[in-house]
Amino acid sequence: MPDNGSATRPLRVAIIGSGPSGLYAAEALTRHDEVEVSIDVFDRLPAPFGLARYGVAPDHLALRSVRNTLETVLDDPAVRLLANVEVGTDISVEELHRFYDAIVFTYGAATDQRLEIPGEDLDGTISATELVNWYCGHPDAAGERVEAAITAATSAVVIGVGNVAVDVTRVLSKTAPELDHTDMPQHVLDLLAATSITSITVLGRRGPAQAAFTTKELKELGELADADVLVDAHDLALDPVSEADIEGERRRERNMEVLEEWSTRTPARGRRTIRLRFFSQPVEITGPDRVTGVRVERTRLDADGSLHGTGEYTTIDADLVVRSVGYQGMPLAGVPFDEARGVVPHAEGRVVDDGTVVPGEYVAGWIKRGPTGIIGTNKKDATATVRSLLADAAQLPRAAQPDPDAVTTHLSERGVRYVDVDGWHAIDAAEIALGESKGRPRTTLHDREALLESARRGVRD
Ligand SMILES: Cc1cc2nc3c(=O)[nH]c(=O)nc-3n(C[C@H](O)[C@H](O)[C@H](O)COP(=O)(O)OP(=O)(O)OC[C@H]3O[C@@H](n4cnc5c(N)ncnc54)[C@H](O)[C@@H]3O)c2cc1C
């Protein structure tokens, strides 16, 4: 075992973020025999798992079960959870260096991007992040705003053709029995069950060949109990750029097959409709104070793949607009940040400031790569970062106060009520019990105080 600078104590590592990349990093650190480690995983929320809890759609039960795998990492004796602690607010990065030999930033990139078109802030216009936070029971969800937008809405426009756009379209289109088995908070389930939305138009700026959704997600739209999918055959005529984009790309070829089949369908009377419209660029969200529609310009692709407006405009009536045009990372005080790319700059996972490696600082996951890839992508990525960390172990600057009690004493003195793994297990049990009381497998607790109250056995005042 190489000398890590202290033969008498394990290497102290702080991981900032308990989403997939943070927990995969913790797992990679514990699954090797090069250096003995002692890891604290911080999260600003009282419950762990990041977007595996607050992003992955609640009706995708198999995918959400990745949380069970991630949970085993938290039960490792070398790993301690310190949830409900916001780095940058409750403890600074500078202070963390006093307690840890190495810090791994895995704090994600879950802020939504804006369209920057007129009307974006009208009542009835929300971001996919707001909607997803609400239906997943995120403690910071803008509940009132989302509920005001959805209640009584009849025609929705979803802007974007990635998997998140497909998720929100599907969730808004499902009937109560289709959502009953999910772990959505009860008030969310009740409101979605009573929704009066009868039509949803999904807009893509480019063509079907360029859409980012995966075939599996796309196909699910065609399998809903009370919704028919409509596609205009005109949108599926392929220009040479699209033909080249599809050539040999299995996902795109299969997407086109699905869309072509849908373009021949006739909707059944009385059912909800989901209309997919491509080459449609929103230029304005209209309405006096509440949204009444989306003004859309028809687009076309040039031979070099660049997008152009054709000057042909239409307005789609809508009383709800959900924009789903991507995510971006935000800076964390005391950590280098690439504003243009919305990521922490790095070299093989080592944080870099102005071209120089910052000793003892590492990065993984969405805040390293940007908001792309599936959950599994973060495993490979976090493992690669951990490889760099372990290679550096012997040279890392040594923490002044490595005793694990030093950091928790510091937090307690600040009045920070952290949630440890026992606290998380108490939340878990409370959610399962709440679900069972309503005949559901689990009901997510969405209120921060309710989460902290349930975690009380694991919370230190
Ligand atoms: C709506 C949506 C649906 C998705 N669905 C799927 C899917 O079905 N299948 C799939 O494979 N992938 C899906 N993904 C992608 C997947 O969720 C991501 O790849 C993955 O969650 C990224 O992991 P991460 O750990 O880098 O970030 P995150 O999961 O965002 O985790 C970051 C964590 O850091 C915490 N944090 C942030 N700031 C601080 C701070 N200052 N101090 C302490 N903690 C902090 C956050 O609370 C969070 O827990 C989806 C993503 C979204 C947005």
What kind of sheet is the major sheet?
7 strands, mixed
Number of alpha- plus pi-helical segments: 18
CATH class of the largest domain: Alpha Beta
Strand elements, count: 18
Overall pLDDT confidence: 95
Given the helix and strand composition, which structural class is it?
Answer: alpha/beta
Distance between the termini: 39 Å
- List all distinct small molecules, including ions and cofactors, that are bound in this structure: flavin-adenine dinucleotide
CATH homologous superfamily placement of the largest domain: FAD/NAD(P)-binding domain
The CATH architecture of the largest domain can be given as 3-Layer(bba) Sandwich
- Strand residues, percent: 15-25%
Oligomer: single chain
Query: Can you list the strand order of the major beta sheet?
Result: 3-2-1-4-18-17-16
Percentage of helical residues?
25-40%
How many domains would you count in the coordinates?
A: 2
CATH topology of the largest domain: FAD/NAD(P)-binding domain
Tell me the overall shape.
globular
Radius of gyration: 24 Å
Low-confidence stretches: 1-5
